[in-house]
Amino acid sequence: MKTIVVTGYKPMEMGIFKHDDAKVEFVKETIRKRLISLIEEGLEWIILSGQMGVELWTAEVVLDLKNDYPIQLGVIPPFQNQQSKWPDQLKLVYEEITELADFYKPIYNKEYEGPYQFRAKDQFLIEHSDGCLLLYDEDTPGTPQYFLKLVKTFQEHHTYDILYITPSDLDETVEEIRMSHHDFWEQ
């Protein structure tokens, strides 16, 4: 795979209500590990729409990985100013990411008009990638289910890989980080 879409839950769907919540670091580390292995297998581009949650965290991870790996970031939101109603802290993060991305262009060069813009964005991302990395739990479908349904329809006529980050992947990262602290072994 040369290009993948990364998406998943919004922060509220994961019980995360602040951008600096400690849980975010576990999610970002899980994403980082998965992306590094994909980059080492030839991944060149990571594209996303820049939504709050998994996508913004992924963008932050990718910008950090650019220091050590030849990876590029594309941010393709559904419409202009998607961040306009977000909390100020997230607006700043989004604006920094869009400035540092290798590619940035909204699908629609206008403000929000309706849900059709989200579907068009998902369809565009799928058609311009070889696969996706999806933070997803089948027991808690949430907003990623809409992207996943489009992917499965696309797969009926195209080769398209779906890679998952599951709750057990997140648990494994939490455990690895916990065990890496010296005081864990001193108990």
UniProtKB/TrEMBL annotation:
Pfam families, per the entry: YpsA
NCBIfam families xrefs: PRK13660.1
Annotated family: Belongs to the UPF0398 family.
Protein name: UPF0398 protein MUO15_02995
Originating organism: Halobacillus amylolyticus
Taxon lineage: Bacteria, Bacillati, Bacillota, Bacilli, Bacillales
